[in-house]
Amino acid sequence: MPTPPGPGLDVGVLLDRVGGIAPIEAVEVAAGALVGMLGARNLTFLIADFSGRAVVRLTTGTADVEGARTQAGAQAETVPMSGTVYERVLRTQEVDVHPLEDGARIIAPVTDRGDAIGLLELVLPAHPAPTAIADVAAAAHALAYVVIAARRYTDVFEWGQRTTPFSLAAEIQRRLLPTSYTCEAGQFTLAGWLEPAASVGGDTFDFTLNRDALHVSITDAVGHEVEAALLATLLVGALRNARRKGLDLAGQARYANGALAENASPGQFVTGQLLRVDLSSGTAAIVNAGHPSPLRLRNGRVQEIGLGIEPPFGVVPGRSFQPQDFQLQPGDRIIFLTDGMQERNAASLDVEVALRDTGDLHPREVVQELGAAVLRATGGDLRDDATMVCLDWYGGRPRRSDSVNGADAGLVSPARAQRRRQA
């Protein structure tokens, strides 16, 4: 169960302070409230950059910061993470306390359901007691809700997270991805990542969690740039529409295939996989529309999961798709990926070895590390998008997550997950 706020923190007052003000000011007003509640100073919020390799200090102050970007009254200072305390805190999801001559610096993860939004950094006037550290952790969790709510109404957070400009195709592609790239739940943890090619290749991933089922998709539209992005938009829109109509897995695939056959140009198609996990029974089914086989890490061994192959979406009008049983065991780690991970200029990357080497990492880190590995293998010259989704399956009955302040901090590997499968 989440750690309750300490006596110095009133979450209700914090949320009341940000109601009705401009979204761009929400985080700083929340920060001001926290300064008073916690007796803190030098409090700043750092949002995770889309690259996964930096954080960005967002402020609305007027003071010039060397190297910072400015737009619409906001400043964004990019801070590389490699080898820093920021990287360690995001990775471990544990609060860092560093003694100072006149107090202590605290860095806490700003996270919700495992989605690492950023960091809260502040200085307290004295070395904190455990209750004060708990207050800061709870404040950081509350700040996650402030950011989630505020960014629906402004471009500032999205702008701050972009250390490189987006092309039009990348902008369209970004809109197709889920709002959160990570989801922790009692029975599973899931994380996705997309490394875009210099010429956007039309990859997407998506997921949704209902009361009784987890739906996951990964897709790859033929072509590049705006043409591929628009084709991906048609496919993802059809899948979401079918899912929200309540169609079963076969119905979703048939509906999406029909949407492409009726609305896309001849020769346009999308490969993809659609997965549905029944959370009550722990069983799963998958549709494989011409897509690369997923990989499974089980008991330290990586294997390709053999699937029957059906035509890509949009190739055969009126086609019906047959869902296949998809075997899951507690402790399994499944990686779904697009062919950008296997392109010729990424040949030096052995995905199976990389998957074994990251076996003790959280899925959020696994997909980022695989993305970084394909960039290293290609010298940063991706010819096609490289997209991956990591699903850790813990099994057991439907239950609450063991989340504390927005993250399952102690659950970072299938091996640990297996030890709690009877929970």
UniProtKB/TrEMBL annotation:
Q: Which positions fall inside the PPM-type phosphatase domain?
A: 185-393
* Region listing for Disordered, in residue ranges: 402-423
Record's keyword annotation contains Calcium: no
Can you provide one Gene Ontology molecular function annotated for this UniProt record?
phosphatase activity
InterPro entries for the chain: Bact_Sigma-Reg (IPR052016), PPM-type-like_dom_sf (IPR036457), PPM-type_phosphatase-like_dom (IPR001932)
Any Pfam family from its record, for instance, is SpoIIE
- Any keyword Hydrolase? yes
Keyword set, alphabetical order? Hydrolase
What is this protein called in UniProt?
Answer: Stage II sporulation protein E (SpoIIE)
